[in-house]
Amino acid sequence: MSTRGLRKTYRSRTGRRAVAVGGLDLDVPVGGVHGFLGPNGAGKTTTIRMLLGLIRADSGTMSLFGQEVPQRLPEVIGRVGAIVEQPKFFPSFSGRKNLSMLARAIDAPTRLVDVVLSDVGLLDRADDRYKGYSLGMKQRLAIAATLLKDPDLLIFDEPTNGLDPAGIREIRGTMRGLADRGKTVLVSSHILAEVEQVADTVSIIARGELIASGRVADLIGTGAAATVRVGVAEPERAQQVLGAQGWTVRPDGRYLLVDGGVPPAHITQALAAHQLFVEELVPLRADLESVFLELTAGRGPGTHAPPTGDARPTHHAGEES
Ligand SMILES: Nc1ncnc2c1ncn2[C@@H]1O[C@H](COP(=O)(O)OP(=O)(O)OP(=O)(O)O)[C@@H](O)[C@H]1O
Predict the structure, then answer these.
(1) Are 26 and 47 in contact (CB under 8 A)?
(2) Is residue 12 part of a domain?
(3) Does residue 10 have its Cβ closer than 6 Å to ligand 1?
(4) Can you give the pLDDT at residue 161?
(5) Beta strands 184-189; 153-157: pairing state
(6) Which pLDDT tens digit goes with each residue over 295-312?
(7) Are residues 201 and 78 both part of a single domain?
(8) Which of these, 187, 205, 206, 259, has the minimum number of CB atoms within 10 Å of its CB?
């Protein structure tokens, strides 16, 4: 799935044009979970709605499975399952009954009902009434409903909104399971911590523009350069040895901190060459949350911070859905 120069503006009540999506280039690789991240109002929902043909773009191009959309949408929409709004289920019917009726309505084989219930971890509660389900279970039933047509690409817009930590964990597990079975999952969120653990790759947008994209591990590497904490028997001598390598070294209690993303192996090697043996070596990684906050700082709705430059650390390789 990709977009190029995608743009959408809305006219406000005062008649001013507000840019919701401003020239967005997005690439979602095939397979795995892709986090579509950005603060509230960044343009995530607008982008998803344009992709699904629910609203029209002002300009730019989009493709799904290599087909230009919305022009070729009828050919590919069957391969896309999206939860953009809460679907309607019958409250007094069980989850299984709701899905069976839906399967008949969309001509899906009814034997799939139990398969999809199992995919979202609801099989043991399948015969309970929908109205007794927790919010997380309701959300998972909605995911199960989209799985009935066996889509290759699943699009979830803020699927964890309003869920408690247990519900969030369950949705994460469901998304991981789907990706492990070869599906592509595109999940939008403004809360990075909810997606960080499950996403293989992410795109971060703010004010309708892409500000970073790539593998989670690589993006974390672009944050404040990693510091390594070193535990060694003779910290003072070790500090001299490491300092002589041109590295920035600071004492921290009985430890030394080596800044600037020096590879731990180089630290071990330099110390061992002087008969100093490492007792402990811990890379102190910046988490994606701090990278996200750093990248999106001042880029919430209504702010006019200048762009921070091109923060794309990696480019997606391989086929795109
Ligand atoms: N129908 C509309 N009419 C006018 N402005 C709109 C409309 N839909 C969205 N917007 C504006 O476009 C911008 C992007 O909104 P969008 O809902 O796409 O953001 P989002 O990233 O999905 O945010 P959230 O996480 O809050 O859902 C916002 O400033 C929003 O107010």
Answers:
(1) yes
(2) yes
(3) yes
(4) 82
(5) parallel
(6) 777 655 443 333 333 333
(7) yes
(8) 259
The protein residue whose alpha carbon is closest to atom 1 in ligand 1 is: 10
State yes or no: pLDDT of 224 exceeds 60.
Answer: no
State whether 177 and 68 are in the same domain: yes
pTM of the complete model: 0.76
321 found inside a domain: no
| pLDDT tens per residue across span 65-108 | 999 999 999 999 999 999 876 678 999 999 999 999 999 998 99
**Ligand 1 in reach of 301 Cβ (< 6 A):** yes
Residue 252: give the domain boundaries: 225-284
Please identify which residue in the block is written with the tokens 């492990």: 180
pLDDT surpasses 80 at 316: no
- Atom 23 (ligand 1): residue with closest C-alpha? 41
- The percentage of the chain sitting over the pLDDT mark of 70, rounded to a whole number, equals 88
Q: Decide whether any atom of ligand 1 lies within 6 Å of the 54 Cβ.
A: no
Residue 315 lies in a domain: no
User: The domain spanning residue 264 has which CATH number?
Assistant: 3.30.70.100
Cα–Cα dist 106/164, whole Å:
32
Question: Ligand 1: does its nearest atom lie under 6 Å from the Cβ of 100?
Answer: no
Distance from the CA of 58 to the center of ligand 1, in angstroms?
A: 15
Q: How many helices (H) and strands (E) does the chain have?
A: 11, 14
- Rounded CA-CA distance 302/288 in Å is 24
Q: Is 267 contained in some domain?
A: yes
Q: Give the bridge partners for 4, in sequence order.
A: 61
The per-residue pLDDT of the chain, averaged, comes to 86
**Residue with CA nearest ligand 1 atom 16:** 43
Q: Are residues 26 and 165 in the same domain?
A: yes
Q: Is the dihedral of CA 240, 243, 244, 245 positive or negative?
A: positive
